[in-house]
């Protein structure tokens, strides 16, 4: 008897469609507030219409698109409420993660983090914010925060954080690019790392909170 088709194939297509859409969103091929049709999503992702139709409820549930009566689907609009909500969610998640991470991370992990940030900072101070340094600084910045959450080993938290992270990164792409900020951001991170090296959760959480507050204020145009 012939084997049935791979039961995981539809799921893989949905995940592929989701990954493709979010990548295009962060690459600014799709812009916040833009109206987009199912057919345009098919063309954008190069995936079948069935996968796109199954993708849409997930994007709506995660707040990445919404259906506007008489107009169709609209990509998330970067308004004041989204910025405040996304950063508040991030703050709550990362504070808890930091409290645990600072007590469990090895000395080698903290030393590696310090070296990584000091290297990017030295290059930014010597060469300025070249495209290569901006890209590396952005990757180090995001990687640092993702690591805090990943260290929890909690898939539910990680998935929720990743959805919010897409919104945070979208806000940064549109409103607060790291261009011109590589050195200041690396210095802020090094301040957090110094607090982590004390192994005092309260001190580390306070440094992290100040850093996230600064990022939120930049997004709100407050500094």
TrEMBL record:
Domain HTH gntR-type residues, every copy: 11-78
InterPro entries (UniProt xref): GntR_C, TF_FadR/GntR_C, Tscrpt_reg_HTH_GntR, WH-like_DNA-bd_sf, WH_DNA-bd_sf
Species of origin: Chelatococcus sambhunathii
PROSITE patterns for this protein: HTH_GNTR (PS50949)
Domain of life: Bacteria
One Pfam family per UniProt: FCD
A GO term, aspect molecular function: DNA binding
Presence of keyword Ribonucleoprotein: no
Protein name in UniProt: DNA-binding transcriptional regulator, GntR family
Keywords for the protein's UniProt record, in alphabetical order: DNA-binding, Transcription, Transcription regulation
Record flagged with keyword Signal: no
PANTHER family listed in its UniProt record: TRANSCRIPTIONAL REGULATOR, GNTR FAMILY, UXU OPERON TRANSCRIPTIONAL REGULATOR
Biological classification of the source: Bacteria, Pseudomonadati, Pseudomonadota, Alphaproteobacteria, Hyphomicrobiales
């Amino acid at each position: 008897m012939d084997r049935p088709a791979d039961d995981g194939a539809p799921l893989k297509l949905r995940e592929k469609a989701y990954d493709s859409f979010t990548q295009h969103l962060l690459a600014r091929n799709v812009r916040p507030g833009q109206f987009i049709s199912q057919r345009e999503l098919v063309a954008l992702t190069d995936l079948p219409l069935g996968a796109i139709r199954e993708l849409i409820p997930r994007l709506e549930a995660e707040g990445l698109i919404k259906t506007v009566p008489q107009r169709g689907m609209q990509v998330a609009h970067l308004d004041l409420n989204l910025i405040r909500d996304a950063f508040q969610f991030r703050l709550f998640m990362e504070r808890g993660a930091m409290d645990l991470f600072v007590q469990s991370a090895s000395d080698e992990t903290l030393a590696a983090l310090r070296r990584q940030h000091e290297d990017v900072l030295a290059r930014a101070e010597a060469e300025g914010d070249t495209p290569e340094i901006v890209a590396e600084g952005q990757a180090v910045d995001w990687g640092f925060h993702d690591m805090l959450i990943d260290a929890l080993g909690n898939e539910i938290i990680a998935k929720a954080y990743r959805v919010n992270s897409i919104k945070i990164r979208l806000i940064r792409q549109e409103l607060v690019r790291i261009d011109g900020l590589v050195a200041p951001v690396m210095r802020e991170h090094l301040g957090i790392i110094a607090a982590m090296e004390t192994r005092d959760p309260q001190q580390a959480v306070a440094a992290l909170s100040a850093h996230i507050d600064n990022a939120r204020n930049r997004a709100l145009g407050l500094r």
